[in-house]
Design goal:
Layout (H helix, E strand, L loop, with lengths): L9 E11 L4 E12 L4 E5 L6 H8 L7 E6 L2 E2 L5 H11 E5 L10 H6 L10 H14 L15 H14 L4 E5 L7 H18 L2 E5 L3 H6 L2 E6 L2 E2 L2
Parallel strand pairs: 3-8, 3-9, 6-7, 7-8
Antiparallel strand pairs: 1-2, 1-4, 4-5, 9-10
Helix pairs in contact: 4-5, 5-6
The structure holds adenosine-5'-triphosphate.
Family: Belongs to the ABC transporter superfamily.
Keywords: ATP-binding, Nucleotide-binding, Translocase, Transport
Pfam families: ABC_tran
Length: about 230
């Protein structure tokens, strides 16, 4: 029997992204084509303004390209209905941001449960169980009833990682996840992401300004003025 090659988790084909304001037109991405395969850990690097965040928001289906095609598991995103697109964003993609984006009024475990509230068919008990398991996984099993302000920056980022993992996404998109952390905590977060990738097979795309961190990932995508340079 012939083995059919698995489609990349994400594929960007001949992407252009132009931002148009009333006074100026910016070409943020130009002729970008790339694939992210299951189990990869890819870093995205380049100087400020080169299009890294734009690339991540297209990968996260938060924005659409001006030209070109984005595919998820071999299917063009354009062919999905708005409703399917919303569940794709919620179920297939987990986000981690530089500034954590936690809700300060909610406990750690409630923050992690949050994305699961939008999952139909999951009981409150199962949500709690899943959230606690994810917190255990990121080493915060003893902090579940704390509030974000009672945690260090590195611990907050761990909560954000647990929240991203709770939905069991196919891919994690991280926008400078260590950007607000000192080098020791940054290394700890990087160790955790590498562990998730190597031991659990989590697919990760990470924007970083840190060359040493990028070198620890399996592949580097480098952008300059909206174009790939490798
Ligand atoms: N919503 C927007 N409207 C207009 N222009 C935008 C918008 N978002 C980004 N741009 C422009 O697109 C280009 C790429 O921006 P982007 O944020 O993707 O870069 P970046 O590489 O992530 O930068 P940084 O490292 O500073 O975060 C920049 O010139 C930016 O000014």
């Amino acid at each position: 029997m012939t083995k059919i090659a698995e489609a990349p988790v994400l594929r960007l084909i001949d992407i252009e992204k132009i931002y148009q304001t009333s006074t100026v037109e910016t070409s943020a991405l130009n002729c970008v084509s790339l694939s992210i395969n299951r189990g990869e850990f890819v870093s995205v690097m380049g100087p400020s303004g080169c299009g890294k965040s734009t690339l991540l928001s297209l990968m996260g289906l938060l924005d659409e390209p001006s030209v070109g095609t984005v595919e998820v598991n071999g299917r063009p995103v354009r062919s999905y209905s708005e409703k399917d697109l919303a569940s794709l964003r919620n179920e297939k993609i987990g986000f981690i941001f530089q500034s954590y984006h936690l809700i300060n009024d909610l406990s750690v475990v409630d923050n992690v449960e949050l994305p699961l509230l939008y999952r139909s068919g999951m009981s409150a008990k199962d949500r709690r169980k899943r959230a606690l398991a994810m917190l255990e996984k990121v080493g915060l099993g003893a902090r579940t009833s704390h509030f974000p302000q009672q945690l260090s920056g590195g611990q907050r980022q761990r909560v954000a990682i647990a929240r991203a993992l709770a939905g069991e996404p196919e891919i994690i998109l991280a926008d400078e996840p260590t950007g607000n952390l000192d080098s020791v905590m940054g290394e700890e977060i990087m160790d955790l992401l590498l562990h998730l990738n190597e031991k659990e097979g989590t697919t990760i795309v990470m924007v970083t300004h840190d060359e040493a961190q990028a070198q620890r990932t399996k592949r580097q995508i480098r952008l300059l003025d909206g174009s790939q340079v490798n």
